[in-house]
Design a protein that fits this description.
It is a single chain. Helix 20 links the parallel strand 1 (406-410) and strand 2 (424-425). By secondary structure, the chain is mainly alpha-helical. The radius of gyration is 25 Å and the shape is globular. The protein has a five-stranded mixed beta sheet with strand order 2-1-3-5-4. Helix content is 61%, strand content 4%. Helix 5 runs parallel beside helix 8 (133-155), helix 10 packs antiparallel against helix 11 and helix 15 packs across helix 18 (354-382).
């Protein structure tokens, strides 16, 4: 009977994974950018394949892990968006499988089905910009939780204690990989380290040291690459302590009052995670006191671990106080695991009681329908190309330039042009937000105001120096770029470039070097 129940649960989880794959199907076949940030990832991959280094040959804010992944997974030149997107969708489905595995280890087979279903109802919608940084960071973060569960279980068995230390090391390394893919996702280190050091009733410093050692070991390959090239300092200032990133956070925090930030935090959490939040809160309220439900696979400290994970992930979601929906993907796993506890939504007898049927069931049904409808809209959105302009521009520029030529584009919606044309930037300032212009001030529910050019700033001067030293074959300026506020660039274009009207894509301006 037990084996039959486990088989049924495994088949149910596989069915959920299959349905999630159908929702993500456009990402397997559409082959275009769903996120312009992915254009930035592929640009850095192209730079790596060409022998360059992020943070050295390009000013960068993001973590380097995805750049190395793209250099391997995005084709021989690191710019095949279709191949990269397929790999990202497989990674996202892998995160779902690992989450079900964690739930199974914690609470049993039925909980695995509940956690998987709840996660699959939300993850594709929260991660609608598939192949983005958060996609790649989610898998090692959830895998780190699985390793921590195994290590905490083995720690209770004296014969397996040494194996437990090795598994804590693996958990720390997976935390490091999550941070390498997306810095805020590295907060998974906090709950894993807490569980390692503070099991119920005692302290385990050796386990904590193993986690920290694993976290540092995960960074060794990238650090060695920079060290061998003589640029370890650039990695430290670009990835570990990026002044551009801290300036971005400080700028947004200064413009938002604490009361407003708290309200936006609560409103965004409830908007994006209403169902898992409600079920997790119910499970915590219904948790038995003084004993553990008979059908659970109790791991000492599991509830505390999940609560710390939730708090750390919510803090990460608040980074910059903009509360984009993708930021909440990191909060989803611990909430799903809490909701799937055997005394919560997965309790078979719960739904036979009177008040859950009358009160909880209608709420769960309504929120489930809402989440399913959001998934349908997400699938439709993924099936529609988001980068037709970048494809057209990239193809046009690729036909008019040679492989060794460079270009420069201004506009975040044009980042993908580098991958589609196969041409690198003539300047380290290939991204302009926060460097050449003020950062966007939009939030999860408010549009951005107009950008302002920082014409006298150091990065504007760096851009002009780079362009003058090695003028690119073409310059493309997006229609929303505040070019009139940058007279020095307009003078440079007027002196050395001619306007090329051979292609019309929206309000994008194309400038060809005059000697071509």
């Amino acid at each position: 009977m037990l084996a039959r129940r486990h088989l049924a649960a495994a088949l149910a989880v596989l069915a959920i994974v299959g349905l999630s794959g159908l929702i993500r199907r456009p990402g397997f076949v559409e082959g275009g950018f769903a996120s312009h940030d992915v254009g930035g990832i592929l640009y850095e991959a192209m730079l790596l394949r060409a022998g360059g280094l992020p943070y050295v040959d390009a000013v960068e804010l993001k973590a380097p892990g995805t750049f190395y992944l793209a250099a391997v997974l995005a084709g021989p030149e690191g710019r095949d968006i279709a191949a990269f997107q397929i790999a990202a969708n497989l990674v996202a489905l892998g995160s779902l499988v690992f989450l079900a595995w964690v739930a199974w280890r914690l609470w049993g087979a039925r909980a695995a089905v509940v956690a998987a279903a709840l996660y699959a109802l939300h993850d594709a919608h929260l991660d609608s910009m598939d192949a983005n940084y958060v996609t790649w960071a989610q898998l090692p973060a959830v895998a780190a939780a699985l390793a921590a569960v195994r290590a905490a279980t083995w720690r209770e068995d004296h014969a397996l204690r040494n194996r437990s230390l090795g598994t804590w090391l693996v958990a720390g390394a997976l935390c490091g990989l999550a941070a390498l893919c997306k810095q805020p996702s590295g907060v998974i280190l906090v709950p894993v380290l807490f569980w390692a050091v503070c099991p119920p009733g005692r302290r385990d410093v050796r386990a904590g040291a193993a986690v920290v050692a694993g976290f540092l070991l995960a960074h060794v390959p990238v650090a060695l690459h920079y060290l061998v090239r003589g640029h370890l300092g650039a990695l430290l200032t670009g990835y570990v302590w990026n002044p551009w990133g801290f300036q971005y956070i400080a700028h947004n925090a200064a413009g938002t009052s604490p009361a407003r930030a708290a309200w936006e935090f609560v409103a965004a959490a409830a908007h994006f995670l209403a169902l898992p939040l409600a079920l997790a809160a119910f499970a915590l309220a219904a948790r038995p006191r003084g004993h553990v439900a008979e059908d659970s696979r109790h791991v000492p400290g599991a509830i505390r671990f999940l609560l710390v994970w939730t708090a750390a992930a919510m803090a990460a979601a608040a980074t910059g106080l903009r509360f984009y929906k993708g930021y909440w993907l990191g909060v989803l796993p611990p909430l799903c695991l809490l909701a799937a506890a055997p005394w919560g939504a997965s309790a078979g007898g719960l739904w036979r009681r009177g008040w859950p049927r009358l009160v909880l069931a209608p709420l769960v049904l309504a929120l489930t329908v809402r989440a399913a409808w959001a998934l349908r809209l997400t699938r439709d959105d993924r099936a529609r190309p988001h980068d037709e302009g970048a494809r057209t521009i990239g193809r046009w520029l690729g036909e008019r330039t040679e492989p060794g030529d460079t270009i420069w584009v201004w506009g975040w919606h044009l980042w993908g042009v580098h991958a589609y044309s196969g041409r690198l930037s003539a300047s380290r300032v290939y991204k302009t937000l926060g460097l050449l212009t003020t950062t966007h001030d939009d939030t999860w529910r408010t549009p951005a105001g107009p950008s302002q050019v920082l014409a006298e700033g150091p990065w504007a001067q760096q851009l002009l120096h780079d362009l003058a030293a090695a003028p690119p074959a073409y310059i493309a300026i997006g229609g929303t770029a505040p070019k009139q506020q940058f007279p020095a660039l307009r003078r440079f274009l007027g002196e050395r470039y001619v306007r090329d009207h051979g292609l019309r894509v929206g309000k994008v301006e194309f400038w060809r070097r005059a000697d071509r």
